[in-house]
Amino acid sequence: MGRMWSRRTIAAAAASVATLVAGCAALPALDQSIEKRVTAILDRRGLGSDALLVIDNLLRHGPPPPPATPPLVLELLARPLAAVDAARIFHEVVPPPLISLERAQSQRSLEHLLQTYLAELAEAQRMLRSATRPFDDETLLRELSAGLPSSTQLLAVVDAVDAAQLARANLLFIEATARFASHIRDLPIEPQTFESAIGTVVIGTRGNDRHEPGAALIIDPGGDDVYERAPARNGAVSVIVDLGGNDEYRGADVALRALSAIVDLAGDDRYALEGSGLAAAIAGASLVIDFSGNDIYEAKFFAQGAAALGIGALLDLGGDDRYRVEAWGQGFGIAGGTGLLWDGGGNDRYTAGGVPDPFGRGGGLSGAQGASFGARGRLGGGVGILRDDSGDDIYEAQMFAQGSGYYYGLGMLWERGGADRYQAYRYAQGNAAHQAVGALRDEAGDDRYAADWYAQGMGLDVAVGVLVDAAGSDAYRAPGGAQGSATANGFGLLATASAAQFHIGTETLAWGRAEWLRGLPSVGVLLHGNSAQFTRAGEVVRMPPDNPPVLVQPSTPETCPSSDPGEALLCRVRDAAENEVGVLWADLASLLNEDPKTPLAGWIALALAKRPPANADEIAALLAKRESCNVRALALRAWPTLPAAEEGLRAGCWRLQAAARAAFVRLGAPPPADAALPSFLRAIPPQEDTH
């Protein structure tokens, strides 16, 4: 959704909301200095600003991004420091009609508003049905009842959707619903039911009504009403507009190839859904817009601003609200979808539980509070955003939450004011893993951050994790792997302008430390004021240097026997008897000759390093012909030759250049003086290529 509106359109929409403009104009000078300070630190380390381009270089010389990868994710991976600009990201992603939403004093009659809205809904429905083919929504609903939809089902939806045409249908629906919500007011309304182009229209009474699912549009003028919701499917439209009363919404209302909305103008409402849904969509759009009141939101999975191949947006414009989801919500995106939870003010509480973690890391999988998730090797993530504009708020979650991105996804939590409390376990508070972006930005207030590992401005494996706190006296606490750190060619940044307190356990990977991998640097940066205080394992320590020693990430030991085909090959070579190893290597040479695209080529290169055969020159030459610069780099590390090193040094792939530079050192030969290398390969001795 986020790529279809021009910056000019977005800027014009944003300009119509005075509070938003004032908030953006008031962003602190910290933003303006981050790039300058980070560049200065990288220069002192001998890395240079080239180190900020390592992620982009690795991705450009690696496999293509998976299906449904949001273009914005690739942009931010190419320019990691752009991830600190929450306002720009928000305006890039969120549809302008939602940004400019405000109550207006309409001079038009209900009949005029209603007829215009029905016509727009009918056109949006037509466009939606044209943009999508039916898919297996029964299986999707079963999967949603247990947690996250499978990548198999989501890939089938990808194949059934014209993404550009669907985005246009969603935008028309959002524009029409936002306009109708902004202009409808306490007008004379007579109870009635009639048929329209989109289905049944029901206008309720001012009493306490109970509305069953099935109507395309319900307008209720008042009373404490109960709404039973059901999933919208097969191109349906399902909209509720409630003008007042303390209402209750039950059931499940996820939109599957459908358009859904709940607009509630007043009252202390309760959204208690037993099933999935509430501002949640797959191949469609789903909105919840609550203008006022102290509201309660409860759901199990995939809710409160969640989407795949569409948009799910929950906007609560005021009140002290409570949000609870078991997992996968509160601003959650997968498969190219945009999930948004935007709270306009009040002292709010956001709670996310967690489903069991198959890897047993000590916490549950939340996927919430500004989070995105992709299926590694199969399907890209989406964009998940949680924005809260004011109030003293509490955020509680387990793993993958509070500004968390995973596998070609973007997760962002943007907190714009108040004394806030953040509590999470792992992969949280400005963390991303595996080619993703995670960002947490807090504009003001005395805040407290507590997490376990991989958090608080941490990038893991070609990923960008940032935490920026622009003002206040703040405190950060984690055991390690946090607070401006990175591994596996990631970028991690914690930047604060406040008198901060940093508490870390005994782990050394924190406070600007980062581990090299693949012969290339990771970048960890901690920016803080002069009055910052640091404690390690409970004891006060000196301010850490911004030029820490180079660390290399240890190799991952192989597990034998292994069910992974590549690792199993490595085990076979390692454990083969002397009278068998020659035959095994002859077979591997034949495989490389017969199958130029074999996925085992990289593993063969690793095996070459561990147990070089008599025909090592032949194996190395075959590997050097691969298109993959990663395979060629591994082969050059395993069995260096001068011709391969000279060719590798001229490559645009930095991993291959790093291997070539190391090969010259091992061969005792000087590299060409005119070799075009990034700063860090010129200034820092060759590092090991670990995995």
Features:
single chain; about 700 residues; alpha/beta; 3 domains; 14-stranded mixed β-sheet; about 25% strand
Question: Could you explain the architecture of this structure?
Answer:
With 691 residues, the chain is an alpha/beta fold. It folds into three domains: 1-106 and 363-553, no CATH class; 109-344, no CATH class; 565-683, no CATH class. The protein contains 19 helices and 44 strands. Strands 1-2-4-7-10-13-16-19-23-27-30-34-38-41 form a 14-stranded mixed β-sheet, covered by helices on one side. A 14-stranded mixed β-sheet has the order 3-5-8-11-14-17-20-24-28-31-35-39-42-43. It is globular. The two termini are 36 Å apart.
Short synopsis of the structure:
The chain is an alpha/beta fold. It contains 19 helices and 44 strands. The strands form 7 sheets. The protein has a 14-stranded mixed β-sheet, covered by helices on one side. Strands 3-5-8-11-14-17-20-24-28-31-35-39-42-43 form a 14-stranded mixed β-sheet.
